[in-house]
Design a protein that fits this description.
about 500 residues; alpha+beta; Beta-Lactamase; Helix Hairpins; 4 domains; 5-stranded mixed β-sheet; about 20% strand; rod-shaped
Length: about 500
Amino acid sequence: MKEKVRRLKQLLPAGKNGVSICWKLGGYLFLLLAILLIIIWSLQVLLLDILFEHIQKREMLRLGTVLAQKIDQEDLELFASDIAIDSAVSVLVYKLDEGDARELVRVDLMGDTEVFFRPERIYEYYRKAALNDGSYAGKFAVGGYELKEGPLDFLAGKRYAQKDEIRLISTSIATDEEGGHYLILISAALLPLNSMVRTWNLQFAFIAVLMFVAVAVTVYLLYRKISKPLISMNNAAKELARGNYEVQFSGLGYRETSELAGTLNYAANELSKLDHLQKELIANISHDLRTPLTMIKGYGEVMRDLPGENTPENIQIVIDETSRLSELVDDLLDLSRIQSGTRRAEVLPFSMTALIRETMGRYDAFTHHKGYRIDVQAEEEIMICADRGMILQVLYNLINNAINYTGEDLLVIVSQTRTEGGIRISVSDTGEGIDPEQLPLIWERYYKEDKAHRRAVIGTGLGLSIVKEILELHGYAYGVNSTKGKGSTFWFEFPEYEEAMGSNGIPLA
């Protein structure tokens, strides 16, 4: 066990290396926040003019399309006035007739149509719209000169740097039912956004501070809900590695941490049981080894030192104790071979009833001299398809266990019955029985219900562990029924012979 603890300690980090999950999550959250703030600031400040111009041009082109649909109506001027007032634009409508442009509608809310819509440029606006599928929108300076996208160009020797000297203008071509051509001009001011940008910058700074505070609070809550429980479980795991199996893991907060804490608590409990069983195994094996070794040594010294003590009886005791040691070593080797998979089952059909009778023959001398009674209840001849040597070992170990724990009447009952699951073989004793909470543990190696280990009357104490491994290797159901004060019944079940064989008579694995 100390070796396992030492290896576990080697797996633990020597120091607090790496970055805490709390700091990593916090770093990722702050990085995400910084990226979002940069995106928002770019859209809100750097690209504000571009976005505003794009949206305004689309709206002006839409208004031109709506006016074009109303070009034949008598209330065109009233309709244009409504559009101009609602959208804060200026509207001009010209009828084009053989090189002459006659003004039909003028709604000048901004008082700039004379400056931006020069009569001599009307047909130039018409040409731009005609070349662009009937509508066009652009940015124009005083006099109707179009400004190119990007840095302002020098126009007529003057650089237009003031936004109040620039307008957004859309041109749309319309035709009436008689084929007449019309030009619709809509003008909108390029609003000065400097004060708005300053307001938004101040608002943006305030929002950024609030968001950083929110992320900091989120990181703290993550620490309380995730990182802190993990740190606590890590410290508890270190205590577990040192051999403190009473430690408790707590992971309240989230489902994953709660499940992890539950799993670690289960692992700690199982390790505690394993450690207890391992210590008990070592103590019990040491006891069972020490007793025959002591007797062999003692009788050997007596026969060496005292004349006449070299009797057949003393020699037989030495032989019996040596046989017990040999049986213990053989059982340990059998258990290890089955668990490691080196001992495989050789499945063949044979008579289970005959095997029971054969097993009883081994106990004739024992029952005759010791007074034990073994009652066999197996009338019907039953066939089984299994490893004969292993099933013989199962029967032998179950009977040995019943002999060791039967009551004062020294009665053991071996029965063979049919059940819904197939054929059941049961071995019963009339002893004190087993506590219900102890039943799952009795199949462990060298487990003893009573804490004071006593030497078995027959066998080595490893019988039930070997029974468990053999029956699980065959895939047979097994169990124990016990009542305190009345005794215990150990049983196992196997399928009918016909069910265990294939259609061609080959045993099913």
